[in-house]
Amino acid sequence: MTDLQTFRQQTRDWLEENCPPSMRKPVKGGEGMCWGGRNFTFESKEQQQWMERMGAKGWTAPDWPTEYGGGGLDKAQHKILREEMSRINARSPLDSFGIWMIGPALLKFGSEALKQQHLPPIVRGEIRWCQGYSEPGAGSDLAGLQSKGEDRGDHFIANGQKVWTSYGDKADWMFCLLRTDSEAKKQMGISLVLFDMLTPGVTPKPIKLISGSSPFCETFLDDVRVEKDQVVGEINQGWTIAKYLLTHEREMIGGMGMSEAGAETMSQTASRVLGVEQGRMNNPMLRAEVAKWEIDGACFALTAERVTDEVKSGSGVGATSAMLKYYGTELNKRRFETLLKINGSDGMIWDGEAAINGWLPRTWLRTKGNSIEGGTSEVQLNVIAKNILGLG
Amino acid sequence: MALVLNEEQQMLKESAQGFLAEFAPLAELRKQRDAGSQTGYADNLWSQMVDMGWAAILVPEAYGGLGFGHVGMGQIVEQSGRTLTASPLFATAILGVTAINSAGNEAQKSELLGAIARGEITTALAIDEKIHHAPTQISMTATKREGGYVLNGAKRFVADGSTADKLIVAARTGGEPGDMTGISLFVVDRTATGIGVDRTVMTDTRNYAEISFNNVEVAESGLLGAEGYGFNALNATLDAGNIYLAAELLGIAQETFDVTLQYLKERKQFGVLIGSFQALQHRAAHWWSEVELCKSVVLKALQSIDEGDDKSPALASIAKAKLCEIAELATNEAIQMHGGIGMTDEYDIGFFIKRARSAQIMFGDNSYHTDRFALLSGY
Q1: What are the chain A neighbours of B288 within 8 Å (beta carbons)?
Q2: What CATH topology corresponds to B232-376?
Q3: Do strands A129-132 and A173-179 pair parallel, antiparallel, or not at all (unpaired)?
Q4: Could you say which of A270, A281, A385 has the minimum Cβ distance to residue B281?
Q5: Could you give the 3-state DSSP secondary structure of residue A253?
Q6: Topology of A3-95 in CATH?
Q7: Cβ of B147: how many Cβ atoms within 10 Å?
Q8: Are A121 and A64 within 8 A, CB to CB?
Q9: Do the Cβ atoms of B285 and A389 come within 8 Å?
Q10: Who among B281, B296, B321 is closest to A382 (CB)?
């Protein structure tokens, strides 16, 4: 056996032994996702076991270096792990802004001390992170942010208001953009800082969305003390890192919700709900809509695959994250509009066991935010036009 | 297989780009059209392509070909979409080779495939009888007689039908229109007694024909594959054909985009470049995004034929449906963003919309393939 075959066999055996049966079912609409952190309530003992076992192996962050608690896997091994997990429909053991966003930024831009301090607890699911980027007056125009960090020697005193802080009321630490030089040009006076949400003066307040849920907060900062050793990269040079993180966020949002392992495809749902007679789905107009969506969905999935393959072979054009974010979120919105039509009046049921507590209408409404958060579709089109097409 | 070209495929793409730009640029198409050319391409173009080995790319090595594969051939066809090059490549080196290789016996393969690879014969595939593509609805008959068959019926929209040496014809030896069984494939000489060929002048100025068969006698040796079971080979040929049409449409979508983007960076109105207007920037960015999706699905579909992937039929329909949609978007946006000049015959951009619609319609348009994809997916 080659090394990779051995690795595959060992991975398969280990997952077989360590992935609890209840963790081999798809999550539905956020129910059953595991976020970890100091305040998290596990849905079951098995969910906690799954996170802890994977975390101990570093497989919650499979490609991070082992010295920071990661799995240290190379690309081929990482792919095998993904395949073996998907083979048994294993859930993601830990969903984490630490792993998706601030972790990669720390690996790239952080000091050794910051990496040592923050990365291992992220891998183990002990600390949950949130992002403090947008402000009431700085949405699409993010660099117009006004929250200030006043220099007090070895620390800053932060004042201002953040908005759209994902799970700000449940998170343990925030990575936050502050204006630390108000004299400098817009993009030049911004720093990326880290602080504990328990620091005096930090007040998150949940925002209720049209979907009924409150995944976001507005977060008030009143004289919050931020240590200077918690600045990522150089002081006043945070915009570069912020842009890097936005790229990550785009990729994450763009790929979201396209296919949950083991979940029903759109045409399966439509066939089940509308019925199929003599090989054809009842309702030809909806059949056409479903087919068009699945064609676009297949083309989009192939594009994500091609972009990855091109990066691996070094022939990529780069800067495609804006396209994937734009297309992926628009596609996801279309998907839920079609699912809603398929389900008729059932799709409007907001509460009740039979309708999985309004999973469909709530998720449908939540998708409307996909093309707003992380940069609106219009901003992505601007990025494509300017950076890729060279239109001024 | 990774969704990238290997080095040899990349080289073929570049050499095709160079060759077509030099010997078969868009100006050549204009010249052929204005001269009312019978073939639609310059007299020596095909022999040059044969010399380049292009007629032999899909022919297996056992029959004197290169066996280079579909991804490679797809690169040539994609480039030919950029230059709108007409040639026997599609009807002969792709459709003819695929049909004969899928259905033919050893004798037919070694005779016909070798002759194609050497550039000695050209072929045309005669399928459609009505104005909409519907291969199961074939009603043309092939009646068995001592030592062979007699063909009666009519075909239309036959690419290269007025010039090809051999016609590959689908006709019924049994069953009713709508049945998949009972369809057989035949190879007949275009000049056989009882065949009437009408060259149709069509929007893309390529060479198509309406062909009538009036008691045309075919010897037993002209039957391609088993009697009554030609539909699988026909399907494989049509799948390949549609994937290559998608590849050509990808070339068209990219070329119209590149030309239009350049125009947005040159044309001034209100004292500024029109490319500075956000209304046009967003449309260009959307168009570009769609072309990115098209590149992925065409490459995947080409790979699927090389790999004998059983998803190939579905991928053929996905690719054709998507490329029909985006070729329509691309050619319409190209004219609109060019404004008045885009409406003039003198400017090249109008040639693309004419060729695109023909390629879209051939072997099933967007609605046909969207429906076929659903059917193949069980709904």
Answers
A1: 323, 384, 388-389
A2: Butyryl-CoA Dehydrogenase, subunit A; domain 3 (1.20.140)
A3: parallel
A4: A385
A5: helix
A6: Butyryl-Coa Dehydrogenase, subunit A; domain 1 (1.10.540)
A7: 10
A8: no
A9: yes
A10: B281
Q: What is the pTM of this model?
A: 0.90
Mean pLDDT value of segment B354-365: 98
Do the chains contact at A287 and B299, CB–CB below 8 Å? no
Q: Residue A40 and residue A29: Cα distance in Å, rounded? A: 18
Residue intervals in chain B for CATH 1.20.140.10: 232-376
CB A157 within 8 A of CB A150: yes
- Residues 239 to 298 of A: which have CB under 8 A from any B CB? 267, 270-271, 276, 279-281, 287-288, 290-292, 294-296, 298
Q: Collect all residues from B whose CB is shorter than 8 A from any CB in A.
A: 2-4, 261, 264-265, 273, 275-276, 278, 280-282, 284-286, 288-289, 292-297, 299-300, 318, 321-322, 367, 370-371, 373-375, 377-379
Report the distance separating Cα B85 and Cα B70, nearest Å: 19
Q: What is the pLDDT of residue B154?
A: 98
Q: How many CB pairs under 8 A join A and B?
A: 122
Res. B77 pLDDT band, cuts 50 70 90: very high
Domain B7-121 carries which CATH code? 1.10.540.10
Could you confirm whether domain A242-388 is CATH 2.40.128.20? no
A317 pLDDT exceeds 80?
no
Q: Where are the alpha helices (DSSP H) in A35-93?
A: 45-57, 75-87
Q: Do the Cβ atoms of B265 and A390 come within 8 Å?
A: yes
Write out pLDDT tens, residues B292-330: 999 999 999 999 999 999 999 999 999 999 999 999 999
Would you list the domain boundaries of chain A?
3-95, 129-232, 242-388
CATH code 1.10.540.10 region(s) in chain B: 7-121
Q: Where in chain B is the domain with CATH 2.40.110.10?
A: 124-227
pLDDT of residue A256: 56
CA angle at A240 for the pair A235 and A246, rounded to the nearest 5°: 125
Region B201-230: mean pLDDT is 96
Across the interface, do A279 and B289 touch by the CB < 8 Å criterion?
Answer: no
CB spacing of A279 vs B295 below 8 angstroms: no
Q: Which two tokens stand for residue A321?
A: 């994250």
Domain B124-227: which CATH class? mainly beta
Please check whether residue A76 touches B, CB under 8 A. Answer: no
**Nearest CA of chain A to the CA of B170: how many Å?**
26
Cβ separation A389–B261 shorter than 8 A: yes
pLDDT in tens, B97-135: 999 999 999 999 999 999 999 999 999 999 999 999 999
- The fold of A129-232 is Butyryl-CoA Dehydrogenase, subunit A; domain 2 (2.40.110)
The answer to whether A66 touches A58, Cβ cutoff 8 Å, is yes
Tokens at residue B102, please? 């899928």
Q: Which of A124, A119, A117, A121 is nearest to A102 (CA)?
A: A119
Strands B207-219 and B148-159: antiparallel
Is residue B335 classed as helix, strand or coil in its secondary structure? helix
